[in-house]
């Protein structure tokens, strides 16, 4: 890496955030469940007290209710609060790993609590340039105890430069056993941003995402694609199947300028048939997200 923007002293400052914790409380209400069900084009029964929350739908809760005066240029909260003040402007959701506790599903009506910890701040030289990863570990509890553990990778990239490298593409696998075509129109992106109270401009502000961040179109939320992957599995797995583990990595942005697809198949070597490979593919056939889901 030549002339890094983050030197050893700057990295040490950011790493002072490691170990910081934050605890939020929320009520697992039914209205967001109805909203996401409609957004994913599902025909679910109306949620009521005791309805089990589908995997990844906990992202509808513990929303970032920062005051308007606390919002930064990109639409997220200004940095330097719970998250470290990484001086690279372009933030993305890079991936995550989730484990659900057996026998303690999150349910509509639960009073829930999330404790988040900055687990690590790392500086890497990526093929696309300088990267800082912030790993946030979340533990979600209800009255019955720990329900879900999640590791969330946030990546920060340097400002767009003329002629900068895009992530080198990897062809998406062609051996899916189930797939779904999706059109990432403004309404889908708006509804997911609204449901998750996500003010990040890259998902709805075309001027900002093209002229400031230098991308060719609005960016489809990583958590939305992950949710669509798990939803695809739900549509193709036995009705009572539940997730025990899910891990995913966003390897290439998906833009709203073309349709995209989500795919899945039983994972190679999954002797008990409980492990599935899931992935996203853009309109050019490139891999955008890769994921592994393990059923309980
Ligand atoms: C919501 C929300 C925001 C969003 O939803 S943003 C949209 C979803 N996210 C994306 O579209 C990200 C797509 N991915 C990329 O653009 C690139 O993969 C990325 C993250 C810029 C990295 O590309 P590079 O080609 O520069 O990276 P390398 O392959 O050279 O790897 C360098 C090291 O980084 C590690 N790494 C790479 N990608 C990931 C990843 N996704 N997760 C974790 N770690 C990653 C890689 O292993 C290398 O590490 P080494 O230790 O081996 O050096 C919202 O903000 O709310």
From TrEMBL:
One of its GO terms (molecular function) is (3R)-hydroxyacyl-[acyl-carrier-protein] dehydratase activity. Keywords: Lyase. Residues 84-147 form the FAS1-like dehydratase domain. It is an enzyme of class 4 (lyase). Signal peptide: none annotated. The keyword Lyase applies. Its EC number is 4.2.1.153. Pfam families: FAS1_DH_region. The keyword Lyase applies. This is 3-methylfumaryl-CoA hydratase. It comes from Variovorax boronicumulans.
